[in-house]
Amino acid sequence: MEQETSSVLSEPSLYNNRELSLLEFNQRVLEEAQDLSTPLLERLKFLCIVASNLDEFFEVRVAGLKQQRQSNISAPGPDGMSPGEQLAAISSRVRRMVDDQYRIWKQELVPALEENSIFFLGCDELTNEEKQYYTKYFEKSVYPVLTPLAVDPVHPFPQLLNKSLNVAVELEGSAIGTNLAVVQVPRILPRLLPYRAGEKGMYRYIFIGNLIQAHVGSLFHGVRVKGAYQFRVTRNSDLYLDEEETDNLLKTIELELRKRSRGDAVRLEVQQDCPPHIADQLLQTFDLSGDDLYQVDGPINFLRLMPVISEVDRPDLKFRPFVPAIVTASHDEEDIFSQIRRRPILLHHPYDSFQTVLDFIEQAAEDPNVLAIKQTLYRTSGDSPIMTSLVEAAQSGKQVTAVIELKARFNEAANIKWARTLQDAGVHVVYGIAGLMTRAKVALVVRREEDGIRRYLHLGTGNYNPSTARLYEDFGLLTCDPEITNDSAELFNWLTGVSVFPELKKMKAAPKALHQFVLEMIEREVNNAKSGRPAAIFGKVNALVDEEVIKALYLASQAGVKINLLVRGVCCLRPGVPGVSDNVSVRSIVGRFLEHSRVYRFENAGNPEIYLASADWTARNFFRRVEICFPVEDTALRERVDQCLDTYWQDNVKAREQGTELTYVRQTLEADRVDAQALFLEQARKWKKPDVNVRSLVVKTKTNGSKAMPHEQKVGQQA
Questions:
Q1: What is the value of pTM for the model shown?
Q2: How many alpha carbons lie under 13 Å from residue 575 in its C-beta half-sphere?
Q3: In terms of CATH architecture, what is 336-501?
Q4: How far is CA 55 from CA 233, 267, 300, 426, 547, in A?
Q5: 420 by DSSP, 3-state: which?
Q6: What is the per-residue pLDDT across 362-376, written as a single tens digit (0 to 9) for each?
Q7: CA–CA separation, 117 vs 312, rounded Å?
């Protein structure tokens, strides 16, 4: 019977394709660029984010599928699609998305921007004064750094860098008119050029590609230019490492990074006016097919528009600024360690200031009673104060250990730089376990006190990055609980030394125990439901992909377990399938902040357990990463997380509900609008530093079943 059930739950029709689900998330981001309740320049930012997401999608996901197809790896995933079928479906879906992008740009954003005196102009739209200004700019600042590269039997096609802006120049000459040259736009040049002599409050820009197109003839003396067409090629940007065969991982990654910008081509973008014979010649050069060609009616790379958002001085067209709440006393009033000893501290970023985490590391570096600091580092900022504190701690004689993940995608170069800086300062730098990526967020401080040695700990769902902590939603916990700090110490010993994977008491860690733990918790809810006890699961994750977890959730639904899932991005589970997932609801919230935290809540027969984690429910996180999951045991803090989850689930402004098919529909607005992120922002604005380290939602709630539902406070447009 179990085999029969397992066979039914393996039907491909019960699983969404991972890549197509990821594209649907990007579509939800694009919807924010259309949302009239979002400030205009923020809508422009969402358009830029979509472009950036698509770039990475092609660089990594499409590149991987192409390699699988080339290697004849045709084993389908749970959804039953082969690599070739996925690539065909991706090509079709991306084309619709790109059409939406450029329609929103031309028909919605450009007119709205122009109404607010922000113009993006073609060279033929410039005034005479502007033409003179830009001509001088081209002659003095652009022309000297351009190099025309002919393409003929003597001059091979140049090696163009990944995502570089280029101009294909068609020259008069041969009988069939296909003489070609290429001008690569140096990355040192700004992509967007403002007119500096305009009136105050007026912003007029041209794209550098358009300026070069207009003056490209000056690079080819005595030869007539028939046409000039902007294009961009996207390349495979994944790193390929055999960690067990390398003697020096840092140097090996440095060598691989140099190859990244010259990987195999996976996508060609050209402007719409590019003639078919030029596009075909480019496709042939890059060994691409027509399915890889994207012709666009507008700027090739919307990400070039991102600087405008900060340059334009129009606060009314941006989100209202806010100052995160400070939930701890200042160092002058009481040191951070005394506050943690009194009770654990829960942080909800960006609403709670990340400065608390920085203070924790900084005070540990300065405190003469601190003996050692151990920290994992996956992604951080280029000017990280945490790194500065670790350097100071090592130089003052403390034992400092940093587990730096060199393979953090697109952060490799920055992490290599920090690794060298820390090593030079005397920090013990290690790179984790061969074959695994270390994504756990842990900072452990060992301190000598009157009653002996005590350990203090920060655990988080997000990175130690002050910059993204202002944009990403995450939870963090500061504690000195002896069992959980001991778990962390054991985890560090495994990461830095030579030992078997440790048995942990309170924490659960991947790659050995986390997957089994999640399955066991789901099974416990199934048994509770069958016994008539309260049973429910609430999962907040970025991605739900793992087939075994999805099957377990299907079985739980069939047993009557109520399952609410907040899955920001990829979700391969299909809710609402009759007889399979009737009791499963899936929602996604996309708004001002990136929902990044991972929270697992299990009803546990009426005695709920809540865990925070660094891991999503994917096979990659469970088996190929070092990840952690840890309980929130303090009653007040657990209630606060519970209230946050309730608030998220009541969101009817930014939440979308996933249907049985891969579609998402916004929640129907009720009389009371609930925008979860706006509620949390309002709470942060009203927050006053407490005498104790506990926060509760500043909203009126009313009981609905066994949960508090905070939907009596009216919320207007997102703050």
A1: 0.90
A2: 19
A3: 2-Layer Sandwich (3.30)
A4: 10, 9, 12, 38, 27
A5: helix
A6: 999 999 999 999 999
A7: 10
